[in-house]
Design brief:
Layout lengths: L3 E6 L20 E2 L3 E2 L2 H9 L4 E6 L4 H10 L9 E6 L13 H7 L1 H4 L6 E6 L2 E3 L3 H10 L4 E8 L1 H4 L3 E5 L5 E6 L4 H4 L12 H6 L2 E11 H10 L6 H9 L5 E5 L4 E3 L3 H10 L28 E3 L2 E3 L2 E2 L4 E3 L2 E3 L2 E2 L4 E2 L4 E7 L25 E2 L4 E7 L4 E2 L4 E2 L7 E4 L4 E4 L2 E4 L4 E2 L6
Parallel strand pairs: 1-4, 1-6, 4-5, 8-12, 14-17, 15-18, 16-19, 17-20, 18-21, 19-21, 21-23, 22-24, 23-25, 23-28, 24-29
Antiparallel strand pairs: 2-3, 6-11, 7-13, 8-11, 9-10, 9-11, 26-27, 27-28
Amino acid sequence: MKRVLAIILGGGAGTRLYPLTKLRAKPAVPLASKYRLIDIPVSNCINSEIYKIYVLTQFNSASLNRHISRAYSFSGFSEGFVEVLAAQQTPENPNWFQGTADAVRQYLWLLNEWNVDEYLILSGDHLYRMNYSEFIQRHRDTNADITISVVPMDDSRASDFGLMKIDSAGRVVDFSEKPKGSALKAMQVDTTILGLTPEESRQSPYIASMGIYVFNRDVLIKLLKESPESTDFGKEIIPASAKDHNVQAYLFNGYWEDIGTIAAFYEANMALTQQPRPPFSFYDEDFPIYTRPRYLPPTKLLDCQIKESIIAEGCILKDCSITHSVLGVRTRVESGCVIEDTMIMGADYYQPLAERSSGSGCQTHKIPLGIGKDTTIRRAIIDKNARIGCNVQIVNKDRVQEAERENLGFFIRSGIVVILKSAVIPDEMII
């Protein structure tokens, strides 16, 4: 894998994940109490022995840059690196990135400096565990110019994805973006060609693109230079190249979730608390997920009831009830609180006197970090450094599906209340 260069696409403005992307790039959004989205593809690369990794981004990249510089540092005896490449204006191209392919095109001058055979193109907002070396070996074994990683898909979800058809040799011969009706039926394929059993093939007769590609180095450079108007890999570059190039499909049959929306992000985090086995586990010693080491103290629990939850390090929880929730680093929950079906991202720092007496922030002009006394929160996402007062009810009592109350410190997306980063919710407020 020394001859492979990985390129992780940080995405655009992250509008589907807003307001979590209001102050950060999409790959920097916190995940599973202590990780960031970017940790997933970077860890997959490291576990696949791919150590040359670029991350392309152009929106709010400061926190992403800070996280990567603190989390990933390779030995001086190797060529390994994880480096952010932010969009920049040059005399040759004064524009920002116009799409996934355009982002790579604008940095071809830098990518060309590496003597590699393949470019591995990855997305920065998916949750999955994949050994890319098997993916790349399949690319080499089939003498492919381009290989697309695909997932099997059943009838219920197929129309939400870009689908492909393959011939008997696994070569991609047709593409269709989110087809419906008869157009959807026309995209059925025999997925036993890619390794599924006949029974699995009947249940999942479609293959959907994961947005993960392997390109031969010369092929990618040629395609990007010959089609300067094409800005997207999945919709333009790859479909146009299928006629004249060997485009192969590689079947990935493990857990994979696109968490590019608030609802998908919320459900993916809540699923991590499932018992006895969640769909994705962070407890695989042979294929660990890496992140920034923080050297925090252990979490302190004082007379709490906790069920089916994930609690990160450095938290202080007092006489509260936590059910089916994910609590991030340095989370502070005061006595009498009820937290259910909620993701709390925690805090970036401790306030002075972190072990203050419970309820000391009530009825004061300055609400402290964390969740105040006797507060109830259900089905919500609390972003970092939020200050929730005492006797607050965050329960979406009117079952509103969509709302924007930025001046009050919250949004509602798909019925999920999202409290903004560093928001202050006053005592006794009801949401």
